[in-house]
Every structure is written in structure tokens, then in C-alpha cells.
């Protein structure tokens, strides 16, 4: 009757575990994480606190705070708005059925215009929007 000696396997496993534990904290990530900081001073008085929402419909119309705009107008308007603001936040709202490429184009325009924080909001498609898909 012969038995398998597993002691060398356990030794190798423990050495690998120690190597991975030592090297894991050294791994560098490309994405920087920004943690909210407590407000030190009040924002300047000329900064408007209202939100900017870019609404995308299934028929490829784009609305900037309920005003219909083209992609070129969107870039020019956002550039002007973000030049006057300290907080450069933007919300992009659209249906689940909008192709990702269309959303990516609007995100690219927002980044070129100076937006630093971009959030994506989802809106469910209603019956009129579903009819456009068919």
C-alpha cells in the first residue's frame, strides 16, 4: 500500500500564497479614485448650482435641460457653461435601448467641453419609444 506524500504540495502552496500576498499591494491601477473632501470654503457666488442633464431619446434627438440641440450646439453650449463653473458635473439620461456608441459620443463631447464628473441615468422606454424601435 503506497501513500501520496502531499507535504511538498502544501509547502509550494504556502510559498505561492506568501508571494501573492506580498505582491498584491504593489500592483498599480490606471484609474484614479477621487474621494469626496469636506468643503473648506463656500463656493463663489457666481457659480450656478443647478444641474445639467443631457437627455437622449431613441429617435437620436438630444436635449440639454429640455432644449433640443444638435451635437455641435451641445459641444459649444457645454464649453461655455463649464468655463463659468467650478463644479463641472453632467448627467446623461437615456433609455436602455440606446446604442452604447451614441452614448459614448455624447460622453466624449462632454469630456472635450470640460466636464469632470459624468453620471449616467437610465430611463425606461415608453410605448412611443418602443414603436420607434420596430
Tags for this model:
134 residues; alpha/beta; Nucleotidyltransferase, domain 5; 5 strands; 38% helix; elongated
Mean pLDDT: 79
Tell me about the biggest sheet? 5 strands, mixed
CATH top level of the domain at 53-133 is Alpha Beta
Basic shape:
elongated
Could you please describe the fold and organization of this structure?
- This protein is an alpha/beta fold.
- It has a domain at 53-133: Nucleotidyltransferase, domain 5.
- 38% of the residues lie in helices and 18% in strands.
- The protein is built from 4 helices and 5 strands; from the N terminus they run αβββαβαβα.
- It has helices spanning 7-23, 71-83, 100-113, 127-133; strands at residues 53-56, 62-64, 67-69, 89-95, 117-123.
- The protein has a 5-stranded mixed β-sheet.
- β2 (62-64) and β3 form a beta hairpin.
- α2 (71-83) runs parallel beside α3 (100-113).
- The longest helix is centred in the first third of the chain and has 17 residues, at 7-23.
- The chain is elongated.
- The mean pLDDT is 79.
Amino acid at each position: 500500500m503506497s501513500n501520496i506524500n502531499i507535504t511538498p504540495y502544501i509547502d509550494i502552496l504556502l510559498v505561492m500564497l506568501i508571494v501573492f500576498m506580498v505582491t498584491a499591494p504593489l500592483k498599480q491601477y490606471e484609474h484614479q479614485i477621487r474621494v469626496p473632501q469636506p468643503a473648506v470654503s463656500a463656493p463663489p457666488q457666481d457659480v450656478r448650482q443647478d444641474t445639467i442633464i443631457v437627455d437622449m431619446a431613441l429617435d437620436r434627438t438630444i436635449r440639454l435641460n429640455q432644449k433640443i440641440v444638435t451635437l455641435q450646439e451641445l459641444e459649444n453650449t457645454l464649453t461655455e457653461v463649464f468655463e463659468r463653473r467650478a463644479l463641472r458635473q453632467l448627467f446623461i439620461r437615456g433609455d436602455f435601448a440606446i446604442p452604447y456608441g451614441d452614448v459614448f459620443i455624447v460622453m466624449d463631447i462632454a469630456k472635450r467641453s470640460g466636464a469632470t464628473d459624468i453620471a449616467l441615468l437610465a430611463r425606461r422606454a415608453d410605448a412611443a419609444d418602443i414603436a420607434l424601435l420596430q
